[in-house]
Amino acid sequence: MEITIDEDGCCGAGQCVLTAPEVFDQRDEDGVVVLLDAAPPPEVHEAVRQAAAVCPAAVIRVDA
């Protein structure tokens, strides 16, 4: 699994952080998503896919 994000399109809703906190965080100054692990272990893959699905700005891309 490889994850990419479009920081410019992020609206800072934080749904990704709530869904997969091992992989995503937010910048303190503006709430924009921060990718903590671009190639996470298999045990969090489902959470990452869910995070991408619930992102209101659709800025998370997941490639298998």
Overview of this protein structure:
A hairpin with a 6-residue loop joins strand 2 and strand 3. The chain is α+β, with helices and mostly antiparallel strands and 64 residues long. The protein has two helices and four strands, in the order E-H-E-E-H-E. It has one domain (2-63): Alpha-Beta Plaits, CATH 3.30.70.20. It is globular. The N and C termini lie close together (4 Å). The strands form two sheets. The protein has a two-stranded antiparallel sheet with strand order 1-4. Strands 2-3 form a two-stranded antiparallel ribbon. It is 23% helix and 22% strand.
Rg over C-alpha atoms, rounded to the nearest angstrom = 10 Å
Total discrete domains: 1
Order of helices and strands: EHEEHE
Give the number of helices: 2
Helix content: 10-25%
Q: State the secondary-structure class.
A: alpha+beta
Please summarize the sheet with the most strands: 2 strands, antiparallel
Strand content of the residues, in percent? 15-25%
Give the overall shape.
globular
Rounded mean pLDDT is 96
List the helices and strands and how they pair.
Blueprint: E1 2-5, H1 15-19, E2 24-26, E3 33-35, H2 45-54, E4 60-63
Antiparallel strand pairs: 1-4, 2-3
Outline of the structure:
The protein has 64 residues and is an alpha+beta fold. It is 23% helix and 22% strand.
Descriptive tags:
2 helices, 64 residues, alpha+beta, two-stranded antiparallel ribbon, Alpha-Beta Plaits
